[in-house]
Amino acid sequence: QQTLFRLEEPRVRYSVIPVCGYHDLEKYQEKLADGEARGIVMLNCGATADVLQLFDLGEGSVTIVADAHRPFDHHNLRYDNVLLFADDEEVEQLADLPIDLDSESDAGSDSDEDDDRPSQRRKVGEDGEAEGGARRAKVQKRTRLAQHYGEGSFFGNPCGCLLYRIAADLRRDSIDLLWLSIVSLTDQFVHQRMSQQRYEANV
């Protein structure tokens, strides 16, 4: 969190690049990879994509994602150099997601195993129980992933509000940041990206 607000310091060099979508990000991919960038801060984009598939800045780099688009791409949870900003409630939900399972490829490999397995009586004993337990664990992981992505596309709390709360916790808040959080909240409400109840709760 402190890293993000260090951008205010005069000796820290950075560039601001406006984008309209992931196709714009791809244009800058090679430029960033070949340059001297030590980190990327993604505002209002990045949460629904596998970040390291977009940018690979090398060892020691950090990518910070503050984005209201949902659902989070679960692949980002396994990366030590990708920081996702989320509300406390979302952090608890993300902690329950499996980070060692690719739902599509894993499901495919299991189905192949089932097709190739000759019809025979299941092995009884410790080996059979262990195999059954591992299989149930995979099914449970897939179920959690399916529930995570099953709601389709939606929006979390506005990026501006989240960043203002972080700034306030770090005692770096200001009138300007407060105004930006109000604008981001109003934007989501006006464009019907949040309910009246959630809007009033944030106000």
Protein described:
This protein is mostly helical. It is 50% helix and 8% strand. The protein has 9 helices and 5 strands. It has helices at 2-5, 22-34, 51-54, 88-95, 103-116, 126-150, 159-169, 175-190, 196-202, and strands at residues 39-43, 62-66, 69-70, 82-84, 154-155. The strands form 2 sheets. The protein has a 3-stranded parallel beta sheet. The longest helix has 25 residues, at 126-150. It starts with a helix and ends with a helix. The model is unreliable at 103-124 (pLDDT under 50).
Short description:
It is built from nine helices and five strands; from the N terminus they run ααβαβββαααβααα.
Provide mean pLDDT, rounded.
78
Spatially, the strands of the biggest sheet line up as 1-2-4
- Quantity of strands, as a count: 5
Helix content: 40-55%
Beta-strand portion reads 5-15%
Based on CA atoms alone, the radius of gyration comes out at 21 Å
Termini Cα gap:
23 Å
Name the shape in a single word.
Answer: globular
Low-confidence stretches: 103-124
Largest sheet: 3 strands, parallel
Order of helices and strands: HHEHEEEHHHEHHH
Structural class computed from helices and strand pairing = mainly alpha
Count of alpha/pi helices: 9
